[in-house]
């Protein structure tokens, strides 16, 4: 039973790592539009 629990825990950890990698990739693809909007919003109040 202990061995089965270990295998289940390892599988869960691997799934979590894969999900985190996917989220990071999505965040990397998005920044160009979001960063441009953030920059414009910061520049406007100074003007």
Automatic annotation (TrEMBL):
Residues 31-47 have a biased composition (Polar residues). This is Thap11. Residues 22-47 are annotated as: Disordered. It comes from the Eukaryota.
